[in-house]
Amino acid sequence: MHVVGGAAYLQYQFNQKFAVATRAEYMSDRGGLFSGITQALKENTVTFDYNVTKGLQMRYEWRRDYSNQPSFLSDVQGILK
User: Fold this and answer.
1) d(CA 48, CA 29)
2) How far is residue 16 from each of residues 47, 50, 55, 60, measured CA to CA in Å?
3) Which of these, 55, 60, 67, lies nearest to 22 by C-alpha position?
4) Which among 38, 46, 69, 75 is least buried, having the fewest CB atoms inside 10 angstroms?
5) Residue 43 vs residues 5, 7, 12, 64: alpha-carbon distances, Å
6) Which of 11, 66, 2, 64 is nearest to 34 (CA)?
7) Phi/psi at 54 (nearest 5 deg)?
8) Which residues lie across from 46 on neighbouring strands?
9) Phi-psi bin for 55: left (phi > 0), alpha (psi -120 to 50), beta?
10) In the predicted model, is pLDDT for residue 75 greater than 90?
């Protein structure tokens, strides 16, 4: 079994109220130590922040997880995608 991974994060603050950020992660799980099968797992998240007032922040996130092997549940029971 052999596992290699990494992550990157970038954020841009437009002004005191608005910011946008993105995060990406990658993990190669040869032998299935963490995921149960040999695969390359990837993830990307994009975040939009709005500071309404001091101590109150609104956040919208979009996230996408994917792999080079069918390993995520689908809307059909017993079928992975």
Assistant:
1) 30
2) 16, 9, 13, 17
3) 60
4) 75
5) 11, 9, 20, 6
6) 2
7) -60, 125
8) 22, 62
9) left
10) no
Which residues make beta-bridge pairs with 40? Answer: 28
Tokens read off for 31: 């032998």
Tokens encoding 74: 């689908």
**What digits encode the pLDDT tens for the residues 24-67?**
999 999 998 988 889 999 999 999 999 999 999 999 999 999 99
Are 52 and 44 a contacting pair, CB within 8 Å? no
Show the tokens assigned to 61: 């996130």
* Cβ contact 20:44 at 8 Å: no
Cα–Cα dist 44/77, whole Å = 26
